[in-house]
């Protein structure tokens, strides 16, 4: 039985800021988090990526804890959860679930003996974060490639619909580690410049790192505007371990199923936050799926030009940004877009604008053929 599920307090930890408002302000000022960094895999050119300043991260955690006992990713996630708890100080941590999304966890610890080897395991990382705050319930780990962050929100909804929990803090994060850089470089998928999603001259992804957290609840919170998750669905295209369906089949099916659950038509969607990695195959697949779904004229953007691809955090970061786009009636441009480079025309947002918004889609796709769609609705309580 479908129950009402709401997205309440949130936080984004990224190179653009250490809370959601700082991130939104950076977007309004058209400041990208992508910069050129020295990297051993690119000794001459450097690596264009979104990387969080470690000194600032450690200083931020020092305000409420001892950072020496935590890995870099744990610090990011702890800071994100702390920001959410500050917005909801009355939360009962003995009954609130903790759901963690990540693709690689503490993968940077491989070969590093500063922490016990077991900390590489995502489950152990989850227990460390839960113990920091005193969560009583065993953390749930969601790791399903690059849809993980959005899927973790969908998992929270499904648990609540099944009567297993009343609320959950969903937190996600991933790093720009040597492991990740070498993997995408082996695909020759990393762009030498800041990525250009959906552009004719796109030539690959930019990597980024971030953590984000959101409180998911069966209650809408205080009076005023709220954001409700009214539909979600996943579908696998079973095409290839690292290549999406050439017909957009999986994403098309996930959009159709999510809209059916939401009980609305494609024409009612005001905005799409796409995956938009800036690889040739992903962007083409998405454009085909959106066109097949009757969404070719709906305003669409990708946040990868601002943050890079933050992997297991990306769909969570972008869902939070979509939430605030709805609340503020504010659309952000798809940074670095120049000229449409997909076979199907789509309506890419080229400048920031304010317009009345009621419904939005957040979509994500990942290795292994996974695809996710979330349908968000703005409402008013009171």
Automatic annotation (TrEMBL):
Entry's Gene Ontology cellular component terms: cytosol
Segment forming the signal sequence: none
Domain of life (superkingdom): Bacteria
Pfam families: ketoacyl-synt (PF00109), Ketoacyl-synt_C (PF02801)
Key words of the record: Transferase
Keyword Transferase (UniProt): yes
Any one biological process term the GO annotation gives: fatty acid biosynthetic process
GO MF, one example: 3-oxoacyl-[acyl-carrier-protein] synthase activity
All copies of domain Ketosynthase family 3 (KS3), residue ranges: 2-378
The UniProt record lists the keyword Transferase: yes
PANTHER family: BETA-KETOACYL SYNTHASE, POLYKETIDE SYNTHASE-RELATED
Family: Belongs to the thiolase-like superfamily. Beta-ketoacyl-ACP synthases family.
Record protein name field: Beta-ketoacyl synthase
């Amino acid at each position: 039985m479908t129950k009402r599920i709401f997205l309440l307090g949130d936080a984004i930890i990224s190179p653009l800021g250490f809370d959601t408002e700082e991130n939104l302000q950076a977007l309004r000022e058209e400041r990208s988090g992508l910069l050129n960094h020295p990297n051993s895999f690119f000794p001459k050119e450097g690596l264009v990526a979104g990387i969080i300043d470690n000194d600032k991260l450690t200083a931020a955690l020092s305000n409420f804890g001892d950072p020496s006992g935590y890995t870099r990713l744990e610090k990011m996630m702890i800071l994100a959860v702390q920001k959410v708890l500050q917005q909801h100080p009355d939360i009962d941590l003995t009954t609130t679930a903790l759901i963690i999304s990540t693709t690689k966890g503490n993968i940077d610890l491989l070969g590093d003996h500063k922490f016990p080897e077991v900390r590489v395991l995502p489950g152990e990382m989850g227990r460390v974060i839960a113990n920091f705050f005193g969560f009583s319930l065993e953390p749930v780990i969601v790791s399903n490639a690059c849809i993980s962050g959005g899927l973790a929100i969908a998992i929270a909804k499904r648990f609540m619909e099944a009567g297993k929990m009343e609320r959950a803090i969903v937190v996600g994060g991933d790093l720009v580690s040597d492991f990740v850089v070498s993997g995408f470089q082996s695909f020759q998928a990393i762009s030498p410049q800041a990525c250009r999603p959906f552009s004719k001259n796109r030539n690959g992804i930019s990597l980024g790192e971030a953590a984000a957290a959101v409180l998911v609840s069966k209650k809408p919170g205080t009076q005023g505007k709220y954001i409700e998750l009214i539909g979600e669905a996943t579908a696998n295209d079973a095409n290839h371990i690292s290549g999406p369906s050439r017909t957009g089949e999986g994403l098309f099916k996930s959009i159709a199923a999510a809209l059916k659950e939401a009980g609305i038509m494609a024409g009612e969607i005001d905005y799409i936050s796409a995956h938009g990695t800036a690889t040739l195959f992903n962007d083409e697949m998405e454009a085909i799926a959106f066109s097949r779904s009757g969404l070719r004229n709906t305003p669409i953007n990708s946040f990868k030009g601002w943050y890079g691809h933050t992997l297991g955090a990306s769909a969570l970061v972008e869902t939070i940004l979509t939430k605030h786009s709805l609340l503020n009636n504010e659309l952000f441009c798809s940074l670095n877009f120049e000229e449409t480079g997909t076979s199907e025309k789509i309506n890419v947002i080229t400048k920031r604008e304010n317009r009345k918004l009621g419904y939005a889609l957040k979509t994500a796709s990942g290795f292994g053929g996974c695809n996710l769609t979330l349908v968000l609705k703005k409402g008013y309580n009171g």
